[in-house]
Amino acid sequence: MKDLTVTNKYNNKLLSKFLFDAFPNLKQNTFYKALRKKDILINGKRINSNVTIFVNDTIRIYISDELLNGFDLNSKLNIVYEDDNILIINKSSGIEVTGNNSLTSILEKQYSFIAPCHRIDRNTLGLVIFAKNDIALKIMLDKFKNKEIEKHYIAYVYGIPNSPSCRLTAYLFKDVKKSLVYISDTPKSGYVKIVTSYSVISSNKADNTSILDIKLETGRTHQIRAHLAHIGLPIIGDGKYGINKINKQFNKKTQSLCAYKLKFSFCTESGILSYLNGMEIKIDYKF
């Protein structure tokens, strides 16, 4: 996230002129994608078009430093595991799994075949599995569908849970136009069932925070972030579902959420990937 103030030089000019001058390496497709996703605010109001700006307007942009400054994303790939069939990367914050300037588009330049087996949010850190051939992709997609791959996240939340562990069931509705999801405790038309389990790793009563291990049984858009916020445990730094006052208090500008562990627990035929059964891939991450 970046905050900028419009100077007199750019009074009555287009937003694009101001941003491209401020960030010479910012690509046009990145700028227009941010507009489509409403990741740019002017005076606190989200916009979706290249509007005219005026002196002293406040511009807030949610575009990663990598994309703003044109860093070489290839040099930032952090390969955790690789064999003939799969590749596991520790994704950094601010990078999409698919799309332009994404992990997939970068890897496609290096591999004859590469395809993501699942996704995590742009501003969520952590492990993403890619398949390196059609057979591996099919098997991986089946394993995720059959819940034979455990996905664990670590989250830094505001609040202390009443119990050391809990399995939460609720219902989620995705509003595509607003790029938001909503949670209900009871079934509703258009809502899908979600299941989120957590266990407390540690709590700090002094600042009313906890670190949770999250296990997903379903993998819906923004599920962890929205579900935890719904039960009064917002992720610190989350600009959509968190609490701005708390985010500022802890000086966190992106959600404190990391996909830190994958466990392969195959119980059906796994073909060329049978060697992965029982394997656990884990990264260390501290908030």
Overview of the structural elements:
The protein has helices at 15-22, 28-36, 65-69, 103-107, 134-145, 223-230, 244-249; strands at 2-5, 13-14, 40-42, 45-47, 52-53, 58-61, 79-82, 86-91, 115-116, 125-131, 149-158, 165-175, 180-184, 192-204, 209-216, 257-264, 280-282. By secondary structure, it is an alpha+beta fold. Strands 7, 8, 9, 10, 11, 12, 13, 14, 15, 16 and 17 form an eleven-stranded mixed beta sheet that branches.
Q: How is the topology of this model organized?
A:
Blueprint: E1 2-5, E2 13-14, H1 15-22, H2 28-36, E3 40-42, E4 45-47, E5 52-53, E6 58-61, H3 65-69, E7 79-82, E8 86-91, H4 103-107, E9 115-116, E10 125-131, H5 134-145, E11 149-158, E12 165-175, E13 180-184, E14 192-204, E15 209-216, H6 223-230, H7 244-249, E16 257-264, E17 280-282
Parallel strand pairs: 10-16
Antiparallel strand pairs: 1-6, 2-5, 3-4, 3-6, 7-8, 8-10, 9-10, 11-15, 11-16, 12-13, 12-14, 14-15, 16-17
